Amino acid sequence: MSEVLLVDSVLLFLVTVCAVAIIEVRSLYAVAMLSSVYSLLMALVWTNMHSMDVAFTEAAVGGGISTILLIGTLVHTRRDEKPAKRRLHLPALLVTILTGAALIYGTFDMPRFGDPNATIHHYRVPEMMSQTVAAVSGREGKQQPPEGYEAPPRMTPTAAEWAGAIHAIDEAEEALEEAQHSAPKASEGEHHEGAEEHHEGAHKHPTDDFNGHVPNSVTSLLAAYRGFDTMFETTVIFTAGMALIMLLRRRREEGEDDFSQRGATLSGQVILRVMTKMFIPFILVFGFYVITHGEIGPGGGFQGGVILATAFILYALLYGRNALYRIIRPRTLEVLAACGVLLYAGVGVACMLLGGNFLDYAALNAASPGDGEAMGMTLVEYGVGITVCTVMIIIFNQLAELPSNPSRRRAGAKAS
Amino acid sequence: MTELLGIYNYWIYIILMMIGFYGVIAKANLIKQAIALGLFQTGIFLFYISMAVVDGGTAPIWTTVGDGAVKALGPYDNPLPHVLILTAIVVSVSVLAVALAIIINIKWSYGTIEYDEIAALERATEREEGDADA
Amino acid sequence: MLDIPLDVQANLPVLIVLTPLLGGVIATFTGRGVLPWLWSTLVTGVTFALTIQMMMTLLASGEPFISYELGNWPKWWGIEYRVDLLNAFILLVVAGIGFITTVYARLSVQDEIPDDRHNVFYAVWILAITGLLGITITGDAFNVYVLLEISSLTVYALIAMGKDRDRRALTASLRYLILGSVGASFILLGIGYLMMVTGTLNMEDMHNQLLRMPDLDTNRTILVAFALLVVGLSLKMALYPLHMWLPKAYTYAPSAVSALLAATATKVGVYMAFRFLFGIFGVGFSFYAMPSHFVLLGMASLGIIFSSLTAIRQTNAKSLLAYSSVGQIGYIVAGFSLANPNGVAGSIVHIFNHAVTKGGMFMALGAIAYRVGGTDMKHLRGLGKRMPLTAGALALGGLGLIGFPLTAGFISKWYLVSGALDAGMWQLAVVVLIGSLFALVYVWKIIEALFFGEPTGRTAEATEAPLSMLIPIWVLIGLSIYFGVDTSFTADVATRAASSLLGGLP
């Protein structure tokens, strides 16, 4: 009986209750708050399942940013949902039940929850975790660990048994691949040994394997193995920022300044003002800490960027957007958001210029590819952090924007 | 008991997804639809993260031991689904932001965010167009 | 030449996606005026050149595919880009249409989008093309999802920009957002199920893992994964009856956006279906072990008939063409669900032919909207006299939709019908015939308005569309005629790609 499951069942019960409440409650402000609660409960669920990075992100995004977005929208729209004509929407219920039943049917052949023998824990991922970049100095590519390298204990002890079972099938496949790649492989092997010796002499790092540089394997997967996905993740965020600018920004004449709109502020609230002023520096320091320490502990560019953004948003909430614009102009924000993506892709391009593949960080430091990897990942995390932080502020700013001239706009739309 | 609870975890994700799905289809309020879409997506995240759990495992973060070497001290959960879900969460908040931006625009030009009222307004416009055409 | 130590040839696959990505991000710096458009034309032009180079490299190498490992990680740990004949072809189509619509877009965007946000508009525009190219080139299942979201998110925003002309663009965009996100979520879940069963995300690796499973046909998880992916993909490619988002989105989007979308977005959806059904699951599983043969064929046939009928009833030419697009997707889906060489080849050829024809027609309608201010039938009436070149392009494109001999549409329908007869499905041949008859009716509706009506209102004062619009329109319409006469390139590529798909090569 796994303790994960016990805590889990209680938490998930609460989550479900919360989800039903979100759908049923009619006051939209209450729904915004409930969805924040939902996200925080979800963060607990993720923590319970040992997914610290996801929990961190969920708390920052679901509990923080999404709630701000929702409330920012509600200011423009309305407080309550119109009462429905029918309590229960029968066709919808039917569709959901049918889809749900189909999905449940699919769970019967799934590996049991937490099953250490599940394919996903044995195939590919353990290999990935036990490989090293120390073998790459010859620049032929990232290789399997060299002879004698002892992989740290990973996933489960039964991996070997399972590996034996599919060994026979794999052998045939490998033989085929061997035949295809035999020529380049041979020369790689020679290089490889020479490079290894040189490497040992030039740079003695006690843990000069890639995973040693990056104890948080979620970060190593995120920024290195699947770094290309993460680049596009940053692009998605950037795209969202641009889409909001495109859809919500007031029409501006050439040279019109950003300070022409005044919004309500909370600056009359003395207690809030004093406390926030005290908090903001700590939030900023924490944000930077999270960005830079992503490879050691939970966190990274995304979470850190969101935390940094909350400091600015808090400031804007208290002193108004004009006060925020005096610190950082909207134009600067847009440029910075683009720079974050450019920094990320730029690291990749630099790797190409140095002779590697795109995002092959090992190319950044020929003497010690392991350090090169670490450097590349750090730079990339900064890129993510910059884009996420600025786009979150942009989104907040755009949601706070008022329509250029609501009456004209409505009349214009009618006419067309 | 473990078997039952093991499946329970997968079923809860389906229930969450379906609560969200119901909201997306049944609710006329556009903001409710956007939030329900979020619930629907979290259900999927829960499925991915559940898939990563290993009995007796801990977070996939290694520990620095005495001589500075970094080691894994025991079985670990699978980090791959965690990474995928980090990306998916970011995507879902981006979609939410764009959806809300469109909803605000709808409020500005239609004056309401209830789907049935909007549909009525659109039907009226179509009738006018039909009259103008004839 | 500049002395850049960048090995373009070796990094070609990633450069195809990287160029528009960087170009799109940098486009936000271009400010006002004509600069954003110039920059976008440059970026999409370079991308197009790179895809041509990619195609030539592939054909010259004689290999079945070219693989590129991102970050130099072995492909089953990291992400792999894989270019074979099929996606080199689709890349060529997407990048080419992207380039031509960008050239076309200048005046139309000036007319329809507030000028203080042209830089942002073009940035989002280029990123949409990036997303579509990225989906096409990747060999990694999860990467498909991320790029799918980039292309969808950008497209939602682009459609909503039609709001200043008609507020219904907003509801159309939101509806697409909700349905599209549900579809993408189904795809994400399907990928998750597959990953759980196979332990990998690389498409080729997934395919091999699936084939290794002794209980492939009976495993309930794989079965549900298959169903989820089929539903999600059908939503994305607007297969009847999951097409609800498409007509309004195409109708109310800004003209240039409609042209880009109609020519590329759903086509990339179909390409994804190729990758998942043929590449990952394999022909044997997708079309013989599963009843998808009949389900897909049935939905496609219903789509061809009902959407053509709805198209006939439309009074707005843009929404008429949008419904016709749903029908054309029906032909494409029917072709590949036959799972025989002629059917699949017809499907691939039709992706190209329809992209070229519909792209050209939507651009012609955009030119009409630019001159006349709308695309209702009343705006079109009598335009044949005022804008003969634009109206002529529209009419020629219409002939392509019907499948008239000597147009590209004829070639694809020829393949489709022979594929249907090869499979002994004469009913499908009948459906294709009926569809063509309906197409004749709705195309006639446009032609009648254009050439046999009397111009009224703004139409009476309209002048021929500007040259910067006419050239791109006629390039596409010309291509649709050219490839109806000389089929050697398209038919050859399509037949070879079809045989490699049916051979089970991922």
Structure description:
The complex is a heterotrimer of chains A (416), B (134) and C (506). Chain A is 69% helix and 0% strand. With 416 residues, chain A is mainly α. In chain A, helix 1 runs antiparallel to helix 2 (28-48). In chain B, helix 1 (2-26) runs antiparallel to helix 2 (30-52) and helix 2 (30-52) packs antiparallel against helix 3 (79-110). Chain B contains four helices and two strands. By secondary structure, chain B is mainly α. In chain B, strand 1 and strand 2 (70-71) form a beta hairpin. Chain B has a two-stranded antiparallel sheet with strand order 1-2. Chain C is mainly α and 506 residues long. Chain C is 77% helix and 2% strand. Chain C has helices at 12-26, 35-61, 85-112, 118-137, 141-160, 168-198, 203-212, 220-237, 246-252, 255-281, 283-289, 292-313, 317-337, 341-372, 377-380, 383-386, 388-402, 408-422, 426-452, 458-461, 467-485, 488-502; strands at 65-69, 80-84. Chain C has a two-stranded antiparallel sheet. The B-C interface holds B 21, 24, 30, 33-34, 37, 40-41, 44, 47-48, 51, 80-81, 84, 87-88, 91, 94-95, 98-99, 101-103, 105-106, 109-110, 118, 122, 125, 129-130, 132-133 and C 142, 145-146, 149, 153, 156-157, 160, 163, 167-168, 170-171, 173-174, 177-178, 181-182, 185, 188-189, 192, 195-196, 201, 315, 376-378.
- Helix segment count of chain A? 15
- Roughly how much helix do the residues of chain C carry, as a percent range? over 70%
* Main sheet record of chain A: none
The average pLDDT score of chain A comes to: 75
Radius of gyration of chain A: 26 Å
**Helix/strand order of chain A, N-terminal first:** HHHHHHHHHHHHHHH
How far the N terminus sits from the C terminus of chain A, by CA atoms, comes to 65 Å
- Main interface pair? A-B, 107 and 94 residues
Secondary-structure-derived class of chain C: mainly alpha
Helices and strands of chain C, in N-to-C order? Answer: HHEEHHHHHHHHHHHHHHHHHHHH
Radius of gyration of chain C: 22 Å
Mean pLDDT of chain C: 89
Q: Which quaternary structure do these chains form?
A: heterotrimer
Write the layout of secondary structure elements.
The complex is a heterotrimer of chains A (416), B (134) and C (506).
Chain A: H1 3-24, H2 28-48, H3 52-76, H4 90-107, H5 125-129, H6 159-202, H7 210-213, H8 217-225, H9 227-248, H10 270-292, H11 301-319, H12 321-327, H13 330-353, H14 369-400, H15 406-415
Helix pairs in contact in A: 1-2, 2-3, 3-11, 3-14, 8-9, 9-13, 9-14, 10-11, 11-12, 11-14, 13-14
Chain B: H1 2-26, H2 30-52, E1 63-64, E2 70-71, H3 79-110, H4 115-133
Antiparallel strand pairs in B: 1-2
Helix pairs in contact in B: 1-2, 2-3
Chain C: H1 12-26, H2 35-61, E1 65-69, E2 80-84, H3 85-112, H4 118-137, H5 141-160, H6 168-198, H7 203-212, H8 220-237, H9 246-252, H10 255-281, H11 283-289, H12 292-313, H13 317-337, H14 341-372, H15 377-380, H16 383-386, H17 388-402, H18 408-422, H19 426-452, H20 458-461, H21 467-485, H22 488-502
Antiparallel strand pairs in C: 1-2
